[in-house]
Amino acid sequence: MNLPVILLTIKWMIRDTFRQSLASRLFWVLLGFSFICILFCLSVHIEGGSKKLDSVPGEDPFGLPANDPVVEKLGKEKVQGEGVDVLGSKLYLGFGLFQATAGRDRTDAVRFLQVWLAGAVADTAGIFLVLIWTAGFLPTFLEPNQITVLLAKPVPRWTLVIGKYLGVLGFVFVQVTFFVLGTWLALGVKTGVYDPLYLLTIPISVMHFGIFFSFSVLLAVWTRSTVVCVFGSLLFWVICWGLNFGRHAVEVYQLPGMTPVGRTVLEVSYWTLPKPGDMSLILFDALKASGFSAGVQEFHKLKNEGKFQPELSLMASMLFAVVMLAIAARELETTDY
Prior knowledge:
Elements: H1 3-23, H2 26-42, E1 45-47, E2 63-65, H3 69-74, H4 76-81, E3 85-87, E4 90-93, E5 98-101, H5 106-133, H6 137-141, H7 144-151, H8 157-191, H9 201-223, H10 226-253, H11 260-272, H12 276-286, H13 297-304, H14 310-333
Parallel strand pairs: 2-3
Antiparallel strand pairs: 1-4, 4-5
Helix pairs in contact: 1-8, 2-8, 5-8, 5-9, 5-10, 8-9, 8-14, 9-10, 9-12, 9-14, 10-11, 10-13
C-alpha cells in the first residue's frame, strides 16, 4: 500500500465524517447552539471604562475597580470622599434585561465574559456535549453492513480508524472555530474590544477533546456500542479529573496519611492518564483569567509553588491519545467481519 492511496483513504474518511454529521443534523445543531451564544454576545452593552488591553484587575495605581471588596464594603461615595477614584463600567446583558458592575474598564468586562464562554461553555460543557454527540460516529460506521464495503477494498484498516478520528477532530475544529470567532467578533462589534487571547480557546479546546475522543475510539472499536462510548467516555473524563485533582491536592497539602504506595499509584496514574484539570489550567493561564474566575485553588497553589509542568503534562496526555489510537487500530485489524 503506497502513500498516495493511504492519504486518499484518510481524506475520504474525513469527508465521510462531515457527510455523516450533516445527515444526522448534528452539524446544524451545534451551529444553532453557536448562533445562540453569538446572539447573547450581540445583546451585550457596556457603559463607561476605557478600552486599554493591558489592564490588570486591582493593579491600577490611580484608583480601585468598582467591584473591589473595599469599594463594595465602604461604598463608592465614601471611597471617593477619601480621594480615591473608583473605576468601573456598567455591563448590560440580554439587550438591557440584566445589569451588573464590571471591572475597572470595558476590557475587564469583555474578558470576564470571554473567560466564562471559554471555560464554562467551550472547555467544560462543550467537551461533554461534543463527546456525547460524536460518540455514535464510529459505532455506526463499524456496523457490519457499512464497513464490509470498505474492507472489501485493499486498504489498511488502521487508515479507517485514523481517518475517522481526524474527521471527527476536523468537524469539532470547525464548530469550535465558528463558536469562538463568532462570539469574539460579536463582542468586538458591540464593545470595541478585540482581545486576541480569547482565540487561544480554539487549539486548546480541540486538543482537550481530541485526547479524550481517542478513548471513545477505542471503546467504539472494542464494543461497537454508542451507549458504551457515551457513558464510558464521560465516566473516564470524571475519573481522570478526580485523579488529576487528587494528585495536585496531595502535592500541595502533603497529606500525612498518604502511604508511599498510594502516592506512587497516584503519581503513575497522573502521568499515564489524560489530565483535564491541567488542560483547564493551561487555558486559564492562556486567557490571563486571574481576577475573573477563581478556578480550583489546589491547581493554582501548585502552579504558584512552581510544581506545575504544563509542557510535560500536555505531552503525556497527547501520548495517551496516540497509544489509544494504536490499540484501536490493532483491535480493528484483528476483528472478524
